[in-house]
């Protein structure tokens, strides 16, 4: 059974994904919700919804969300991530740049650093409870979850990330 927050997050994911596609803007789900879309089931509750988008599309996507009732909040350098809220819903849009299909961190202190090469090239469109979203590649998702505490030392390894890695590995082998 889905709780109320999960239902509203899922509806917001569906709405934002569909609207971005209508505008021909690239947008990829990442993090815990990406795991759930890959699995085809909700594995746990989620505090927020994490995305990747191309830096060149950031302003258009933020404007789109504003039209849908979202408010931008400043949490990270704007060239690195855009964060928006709507009541208790929270979207974090990490910005990337693509060069010859290779994704790079869009800006901020890690600007220009590589993201996993398969992040976008192996992305896929997935469905969950009638919602549809493009999701980053499974192997890239695993690498990001494994490496985040190394790349960003103040972010500790969390049990939910270890569980997500196990679930993603089983999805790869299944």
List key phrases describing it.
174 residues; alpha+beta; Beta Polymerase, domain 2; six-stranded mixed beta sheet; two-stranded antiparallel sheet; 6 helices; 8 strands; nucleotidyltransferase activity; transferase; nucleotidyltransferase; Aminoglyc_AdlTrfase
Report what the structure shows.
One of its GO terms (molecular function) is nucleotidyltransferase activity. InterPro entries: Aminoglyc_AdlTrfase. This is Aminoglycoside adenylyltransferase. Pfam families: Aminoglyc_resit. It is built from 6 helices and 8 strands. It has 174 residues and is α+β, with helices and mostly antiparallel strands. The protein has a single domain, classed as Beta Polymerase, domain 2, CATH 3.30.460.40. Strands 1, 2, 3, 4, 5 and 6 form a 6-stranded mixed β-sheet that branches. Strands 7-8 form a two-stranded antiparallel sheet. The mean pLDDT is 94.
